[in-house]
């Protein structure tokens, strides 16, 4: 289904399904394309540019997506376990109902990005810029937010058990009452009932 690529080739408005994405040494681009049940696992996509594309039930396990600019993408029901988005810019995109456990988002710049019903357990968000980012009903257990301000970020619908974050980065985060009690342990606060 995938033709032999040539350097600097761009594909417009194509649909791909039920295939393995080939590793390529070339710079290639996809615009307004749809990928359904495509196996990208263990691929190096650093030279591949996607814009205004949709991914449905695709396998992105252990993919290198670092140093990339991503705009207007939608991932739905995808396996992104261990994906590396480090040093990328992620804009106007959404990930729905997907597994992103053990993902690397270090040094990423987010702008208008949504995670809906995703598992992000044990993922790294180190030195990340979060602008208009929504975490809606996500699992963030053991996720690491280091040198990443959570100011105005809503985590109140998420599971944030054992989240790793500095006190400074927590300032301004929006959480529910139970989460606030759990996060108070980071401050060393001990809660005792009065007699």
Features:
Pectate Lyase C-like, mainly beta, 6% helix, single chain, 195 residues
Q: Determine the N-to-C terminus distance.
A: 72 Å
| CATH architecture name of the domain at 57-187 | 3 Solenoid
The number of helices is 2
CATH superfamily of the domain at 57-187: E3 ubiquitin-protein ligase SopA
Portion in beta strands:
25-35%
Name the average pLDDT.
92
Number of strands: 13
Give me the secondary-structure category: mainly beta
Order of helices and strands: EEEEEEEEEEEEEHH
Task: Please give a structural write-up.
The protein has 195 residues and is mainly beta. It has a domain at 57-187: E3 ubiquitin-protein ligase SopA (Pectate Lyase C-like, 3 Solenoid). Helix content is 6%, strand content 31%. The chain is built from two helices and 13 strands. The strands form three sheets. Strands 2, 4, 6, 7, 8, 9, 10 and 11 form an eight-stranded parallel β-sheet that branches. It has a three-stranded parallel β-sheet with strand order 1-3-5, with no helix packed on it. The radius of gyration is 18 Å and the shape is elongated. The model has no long low-confidence stretch (mean pLDDT 92).
What is the gist of this entry?
The chain is mainly β and 195 residues long. The protein is built from two helices and 13 strands; from the N terminus they run βββββββββββββαα.
Annotate the secondary structure layout:
Blueprint: E1 9-12, E2 15-20, E3 28-31, E4 34-39, E5 48-51, E6 54-56, E7 69-71, E8 74-76, E9 89-96, E10 109-116, E11 129-136, E12 144-145, E13 164-165, H1 167-170, H2 177-184
């Amino acid at each position: 289904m995938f033709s032999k690529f040539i350097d600097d080739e761009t594909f417009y408005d194509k649909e791909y399904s039920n295939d393995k994405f080939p590793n390529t040494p070339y710079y290639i681009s996809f615009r307004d394309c749809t990928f359904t049940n495509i196996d990208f696992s263990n691929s190096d996509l650093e030279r591949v540019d996607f814009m205004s594309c949709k991914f449905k039930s695709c396998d992105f396990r252990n993919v290198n997506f670092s140093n990339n600019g991503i705009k207007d993408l939608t991932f739905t029901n995808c396996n992104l376990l261990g994906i590396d988005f480090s040093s990328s810019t992620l804009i106007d995109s959404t990930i729905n109902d997907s597994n992103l456990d053990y993902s690397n988002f270090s040094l990423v710049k987010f702008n208008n990005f949504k995670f809906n019903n995703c598992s992000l357990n044990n993922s790294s968000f180190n030195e990340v810029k979060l602008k208009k980012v929504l975490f809606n009903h996500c699992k963030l257990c053991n996720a690491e937010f280091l040198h990443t301000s959570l100011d105005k970020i809503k985590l109140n619908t998420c599971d944030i058990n054992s989240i790793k974050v500095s006190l400074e980065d927590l300032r301004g985060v929006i959480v529910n009452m139970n989460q606030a009690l759990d996060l108070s342990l980071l401050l060393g606060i001990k809660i005792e009932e009065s007699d």
